[in-house]
Amino acid sequence: TVAILAQVFSVLVACRSMRSLVWLFVAALAAEFAKDVPFASVVDVAAVKAQAAAESKPAVVFVTQSWCGACNNLKNSMNGNTKVKGLMQKFVAVHASGDSGQQWQAPGKSDGYVPRVYFLSPQGDVLDIRGPNSKYAHFFSSADD
Questions:
Q1: Residue 131: closest CA among 117, 114, 111, 113
Q2: Which Pfam family, an example, fits this chain (predicted)?
Q3: What is the pLDDT of residues 99-120, one digit of tens each?
């Protein structure tokens, strides 16, 4: 199956007029979080804060885009890390994909990058937990960061 997909992909890439089909194909192969990661059904900022308070748990919010290679690397990294997946049980875990992630940016700002990861206290306050790159405060490239 992988060999067939590779052949189809190479044919599509070779044909310039089918460039949009290539992007659709790549998007279809994009990584997603594993089904055993316990994501909440809410993504709205107010709803996430309310759920964190109701469950007396901190929240972690993953903001991703399906076309983003770094986002897919983060997802794959988490999917393969049983320790991190186990810790997710202690959080209200949220995956804000696509346009739903825009509401997580600071008011009046555009972070301009994904993936972004935000941490909230059980009271709903956004915590100042930063990734390893000072230029991109909420960028975490893998589950190991």
A1: 117
A2: Thioredoxin_7
A3: 888 888 766 666 678 899 999 9
